[in-house]
Give the backbone structure.
Amino acid sequence: MTVESTAARSMARRSGTGGKSATKKSASAPREAGGTTGTTAATAKRSKSAGAASPAKTENSGKPAKAAKSTRTSKTAQPAKTAKASKAAKAAKPAKTAKAAKSTASAKTTRTARTTRTTKAAPAVDGSAGTELVQLLTPEGERVEHPDYAIDLSDEELRGLYRDMVLTRRFDSEATSLQRQGELGLWASLLGQEAAQIGSGRALRDDDYVFPTYREHGVAWCRGVDPTKLLGMFRGVNNGGWDPTSNNFHLYTIVIGSQALHATGYAMGVTFDGADSAVIAYFGDGASSQGDVAEAFTFSAVYNAPVVFFCQNNQWAISEPAERQSRVPLYQRAAGFGFPGVRVDGNDVLACLAVTRAAVERARSGQGPMLIEAFTYRMGAHTTSDDPTRYRRDEERAEWEAKDPIARLRTYLEKDGLADDAFFASVEEESEAMGKHVREAIRTMPDPDTMAIFENVYADGHALVDEERAQFAEYLASFADPDEPAHSAASAGEGR
Amino acid sequence: MAAATSTASASAASGTPDVRKMPIAKALNEALRSSMENDPKVLVMGEDVGKLGGVFRITDGLQKDFGEQRVIDTPLAESGIVGSAIGLALRGYRPVVEIQFDGFVFPAYDQIVTQLAKMHARALGKIKLPVVIRIPYAGGIGAVEHHSESPEALFAHVAGLKCVSPSNASDAYWMMRQAVESDDPVIFFEPKRRYWDKGEVDVTAIPAPLHAARVVRQGGDCTLAAYGPMVKTCLEAASAAEEEGRSLEVVDLRSMSPIDFDTLQKSVERTGRLVVVHEAPVFLGTGSEVAARITERCFYHLEAPVLRVGGFHAPYPPARLEDEYLPGLDRVLDAVDRALAY
C-alpha cells in the first residue's frame, strides 16, 4: 500500500462509524447541522417552485391527444376500440368545464376580493357560515357570539386550550433555539399559529385521522405524539420517525400539498368501511396553488369524502404573499368544487375549535368535505433558514402581534376570572419542564446506525438493496481495526 | 433469487390443472377478478375502468360484479388517482390503479416518486403501501402521441418501487396476482401491443417468484435479454437466426426492478455474448444497467461487449415512423451479428 492510500484510508477510518468516531461526530454537530440546513432549505424552495410550475401542468394535458383518431387502424386489432373509448373519455372530461368556470368566477370576483381583504370577509358560499370572519374571541379578549358557530366550554376546557397553546409555543421556541445551537439542521416554527392548530386539533376524535404539513407541531401535541419525536427529521436522524397509526397522525409531508390527496383517499376508505370517522388535511396558502390540492377538492367532492381541508393562511409562502396565490379569498375556492368554505379567525382558538367541530360533524354525518381557511399569521420565519426581513415589513408583524392567540385567551381568562394566578404559574412551570425535557431529549438522541440507509426501503425486500447493503458492509469492514471487534460489520450483519 | 427455467409455470399444481387459453388482456382481467375475490380490500381504480372496462377492456365486467365501491371510475387527474390510492392504502386497502396510457403517468410521477416510493421507509417500516400501478405501455399500435412510450427506467431508477412487465398470458395472470399481493408498490407495465396474444394459463399452477427472470429459449451463441413486448420479438429473432445456423438464448427478464442478474449471468457465462433489447430509448435505459452489471459479473466470460438495441434519443415518432423506430427482428439480428463479429 502506498503512503497516499494509507493516509486516505486512515482519514476514512476517522470519519467511520466506530465507537470513538461517534463521539467526534456529535462534537462536530453544529457544523454538520449547518450543512443539513442548506440542503433542506433547497428542498423547501424546490417544493415551492413546483407550485409555480403547476399552471404549465394544466396546459400540458396530454388528454386531447387521446381523442385524435389513430392513423393506422389496420395495424392492430384494438386501435379502433381505443380511439372510440378515448373519444368517450374526452366527452366525459370534467376538467375543461371546471377550468372555464373557474376563470369566469375569478374574473367576476376580483374586485370584491380586493375590497374584502381590507375590510371584512366576503359572504360564505353556502350562506350559512355568516358574512364575515368567524370570530368568538376578539383580539382584546372579548367573548363574542356568532350566529352560526356557537361554543360552550367549561372553565377547565378553556384553561386546557390555554395550556395547550402555551406548551406548544414553548416547544416550538425551544426547537428554534436548538436549531440555533446546532442541534437541529432546520426548524419550521409555528409561532403565531397556535390557535389554528390547537383549536382544530382539539376538535378531533381519536379515530379521526390527521394529515399534516411539516409545521403542525400543535396538532401533533393534540394527537399525543411525543414532541421530541417531531425533532428527528429536523435533526436529520430520520425522515419521519413516528408510527402514523399509533396516534392517527400521518408523517410530516414536505412536498407542498401532496397530503391533501392522501387525506382524501383515506377518507374515501372511511366511507367504504362504513365508519363515521373524519379526516383532516392541513395545508397552507402556498399549497392552495398546488394541483394536488385542487385534485383533492375534486375527488373529495365527487366521492363526498369525509375530509376537512384546514388551510392555515399565514399570509406568507416563504417570501410570497397570499396575493401571489389567489385572486379570491381562499375559502371561496370551495364553492367551485361544490362544498362549503368558511374563513375563521385563525388566531382565535375558540372559533377554530367551533368551526372545525362543525366541519368534522358535517363530514361524519355524510355531508362531505368542507374547507376552512384559518386566517392567521406566520410570526416567525418560514424556517430557520429564512430571512423575512428581505420581504416583509416589521409593521405588519407588529399589527399581528396585537392579535396574538395566547394573549387574547389569557386576557379573557383573567378578566372573567376563569383562571387564577396559581393556574398560570403551574402552566409556566410545566412549560419550563417541557423545555428542559426537550433539550435533554435532543442531546441524547442517538445518530442512526450507518446501515439504517438500507432499512425499510421495501417491505418485501429487494435483491439490489440486499446486494448493496452487503457490499457496503464489506467496504466498511475493510477499515476495521484488526485489534478491535468490527462494530460496523457486526451491525451490518444484523441489517435486516 | 430463484429462477424458473421453462416457459410453463412450474409444475406441482394443487389438484387438477385448470389450463385455459386466453389473451394477455383476459389473463389480466382474470387475475384482477381472482385478486378481488380473494381479498375484499383489493380495489380497482382509474379513468373509465367501470362501465367501459377500461379503454383496453382489462377491467371489463369487474364493476358489474364487484360494484362501484371496488371498481372506481375516477376524475381525470392522475396525481389525484395515485394520491388518493395512497390514502386508501393507508386505510388498509390494496388499490390497483390504472393509468390509461404510458404518456399520462407523469402528472402522477410526483406522487409516485416523492410519496408512494418513500413512505414505507419514512415511517420506519410501520406502514405499508400495497399499491399496484398498471400502465399499458410501449408502441406498435399506430397510436397518436403520448400513447406509445416506454418510461420504465424512470420508475426502476427510484428506490422503493418495483417494476415488472409480463410478456405472455401466463405471466400476465400470475404476475398480476403476485403484484397485488406484494406489500410494496409495484409499477406493472403491460405490453399493450401484445394484449391480444393468446397463451395458456394454468390458474392452479405454482408461479415463479415475481422478480425471477426466465430462460424462454435455450441457445449457445448469444443471449438476448428482453421483457414485455420485446420478448416475442427476440423469440422471433432467435427462430430466424436458427435458420442461419445460429443458436440464440432468450431470457425474459420479467422484472426491471429488481433485476434477476443471477439468471442472466448464468446464461451469459454459457453464451459469452449479450444483447439487451427494449423499446425504451437506449440511453440510460434498463439495458445500460444490465450491460454494466453483466460486464462486472461476467468480464472474463464475455467474448464481446454487451450491446443494446432500443429506441433512439428522440421523442417517440409519429405512428408512420414507428416501425423504423421500434427494434424489430432485423435490428436485433444486426446486433447479434455485431456481437458475434468480435
